[in-house]
Amino acid sequence: MSELSLHTPDSLRSRSEVVAASLPPLMADAEQLAATVLLGVHGRKRAGTGDEFWQYRPAEMGDSYRAIDWRRSARSDGHFLRQTEWQAAQSVMIGVDDAASMTYSGDRSRPSKLRRAQTLAMALAIIAVRGGERVGLTHLAEPPRGGQAQLLRMADALMDGAERPEYGAPKPQIMPAGARAVFFSDFLGDPSAIETVLGRATDRGVSGALVQILDPVEEAFPFDGRTLFESMSGTIRFETLKARALRDEYLERLAARKDALQEMTRRTGWRFHVHHTDAPAEPTLLWLYQALERR
Q: Residue limits of the DUF58 domain (predicted)?
């Protein structure tokens, strides 16, 4: 197919139809996943400005006389203040690696790494929006926003069928100071790019998490005998007659990459988590929900 034909109205229409067909299932999966982790209004569970009651606390020296809850205080010998939940809107920035390597799945019964990343990303966004927070995608120039319309914009952007490089790396366009961020990727590309992004984010007071998504085949390396290895884009090919002989070295390199990512997050105060596409998504979403909580 020529380069010119890639931009014909027919091919663009076909790609749009594929994206449009994928968007409803993605949102349905994300909604269902989010519902398993969060039901009802999300409170930050910190004292501050808000409308929802959190707790009473004993009055202390310096508290305003008007702040005392006299009805509660009348039921005891002391004076008590009524505190509300801290519900100030925060920004949660989400990055999803859509490189060719992320489209891999070792079995048709499993989602690709990309689809699992998209589902987790949208479920996290849904939870944040329900909690009154702003969300955005790191690769877009638009600032984070709240509301259902923003969720649909994000889902549409995540499903965009643009051409992809072999391996990806976070390339944030916007990172509001003090925001929280999550990057979903297999992190099999250049690790220095990841280190640079984490350093810059930390300098802006941005905290968050890296979620490495891998297919179980990538963890087990179950190959033996003559094997042809080919990258997802087809640009890299390697054939061997003794695949099993490569297993130990491969697993050592994968373990070293995980250790490097763990060390990067340790130095910057971020968190690191590995998710496998044959495992349920709920535990990882719950881990993220807890990891991003401001305590």
A: 55-257
- Tell me which residue of 154, 156, 155, 134 sits closest to 145, measured CA to CA: 134
Residue 287's contacts (CB-CB under 8 Å, 6 or more residues apart) are 273
Is 279:29 a contact under the CB 8 Å cutoff?
A: no
In the chain, the DSSP E strands lie at 53-58, 80-84, 91-96, 134-137, 180-185, 207-214, 227-230, 237-240, 271-276
CA-to-CA separations, 250 to 215, 243, 254, 261, 293, in angstroms, rounded:
15, 10, 6, 17, 36
Place of tokens 């995608």: 137
Question: What is the per-residue pLDDT across 83-98, written as a single tens digit (0 to 9) for each?
Answer: 654 444 589 999 999 9
Structural domains of the chain, ranges and CATH numbers in brackets: 22-42+89-291 (3.40.50), 53-84 (no CATH)
Taking residue 117's Cβ as centre, other Cβ atoms within 10 Å add up to 26
How much is the pTM?
Answer: 0.76
Convert the pLDDT of each residue in 109-164 to its tens digit.
999 999 999 999 999 999 999 888 899 999 988 889 999 999 999 999 998 766 77
Q: Name the token pair of 145.
A: 């926003």
CA distance 281 to 260: 24
